[in-house]
Amino acid sequence: MTTTEAVSSENGSARPRPTGIYDGAVTEPQTPITDRARDYLNLDSLFTAEELAQRDKVRAFVDARIRPNIAQWYEDAHFPVEIAREFGDLGLLGMHLKGYGCPGRSSVEYGLTALELEAGDSGLRTFVSVQGSLAMSAIHKHGSEEQKQQWLPGMATGELIGCFGLTEPTAGSDPAGMVTHAVRDGSDWVLNGAKRWIGLASVAQVAIIWATTEDGVRGFVVPTDTPGFTATPIEPKLSMRASIQCDITLTDVRLPADAMLPNVVGLKGPFACLNEARYGIIWGAMGAARDSYETALRYMLDRKQFDTPLAGFQLSQRRLTDMVLEIQKGILVALQTGRLKDAGTLHPQQISFGKLNNVREAIAICREARAMLGGNGITLDYSPLRHANNLESVRTYEGTDEVHTLIMGQAITGLPAYR
């Protein structure tokens, strides 16, 4: 029998919780995971000491701050807003950007950070992605010097939270179909429209909103306390429960002329930011996969059936082997993508390779790990089903499987097949 302990929820009720599991609440000895099982090909040897130090710093934070709390946050559909300042203190917000208080770390260091954060939970990694790769990146890439000075330092510390409004209720995979529009009224701009599935919008102080104008698609920096701006959390959700996604309505939102991002026109503006976010997903998905695999492996080593550890059965070893193969390959894909990015030679079509492959394989690993846990796998005492549910969102946002398949198909054949 598995021993249990009582864990109290916020409403005072208690539920039994297995001990000795990989969620930060370990109270019984576990069979250790060997170096071979953790890193079969010694991929750590491919990273620099500085890269490994960054990874280990974030891993320690996840172990101390996220693992002990994530089951309750997920169950309560709670995003801990205070963690933004903690991420800022660690230098994780806009960490791949330079200047304006941003850490200026490498793409590989950012990728390893994303991997470790998503080993904790996709929702927490998504916050770092929305803040740094989308909202901050838009200002950093396309904003004026005044906009950068006004917003980026506070966003880098987590004092200010940003969101990124591109997707609409009727325009997801085809952002060219957006209906949100901005028109001139004297020297001002007036925005009207709607956005959907916008991360962090209800807790953000600033929103980057993309809208059509008579000159093409333009981005606008919108303080969220501007009259006419409304953000409503989307509830209930079966995925990303420890994160916030919102509907935004824009009703005669009046902005000064200098609210527009001056340095880009057209969809290449938001796409440049999306590629930053997609890059982080390549790494993050492998974090969810690794955590699910290690959870299943520990369970297989510790639990006995027919007087034999589950890990000693042939079918268990086949499943674990398949997981190791895909995780190690996925990290190699992420690393090569990161090295290309740091060298300035990465093409957007190559990002699609990693996003499509790694998220698809990660979901399969998380589902298989859940199955290996039997009935226990459907509880929040174990991470794989939570990871699998979260990855359904990750698989959808920043380009669906179908979109990335067609991006790759066009790159391979030279023929677009979107219509």
From TrEMBL:
Catalytic activity, as annotated: glutaryl-CoA + oxidized [electron-transfer flavoprotein] + 2 H(+) = (2E)-butenoyl-CoA + reduced [electron-transfer flavoprotein] + CO2
Residue segments, region Disordered: 1-29
Acyl-CoA dehydrogenase/oxidase N-terminal domain: residues covered: 48-159
Alphabetical keyword list: FAD, Flavoprotein, Oxidoreductase, Transit peptide
A GO molecular function held by the record: glutaryl-CoA dehydrogenase activity
This protein's record includes keyword Oxidoreductase: yes
Acyl-CoA dehydrogenase/oxidase C-terminal domain residues: 272-412
Cofactor(s), names only, from the UniProt record: FAD
Pfam family, one: Acyl-CoA_dh_1
Top-rank lineage group of the source organism: Bacteria
Polar residues: compositionally biased ranges: 1-12
Transmembrane segments: none
Pathway(s) served: Amino-acid metabolism; lysine degradation; Amino-acid metabolism; tryptophan metabolism
The protein's Enzyme Commission number: 1.3.8.6
Official protein name in the record: glutaryl-CoA dehydrogenase (ETF)
Protein species of origin: Nakamurella multipartita (strain ATCC 700099 / DSM 44233 / CIP 104796 / JCM 9543 / NBRC 105858 / Y-104)
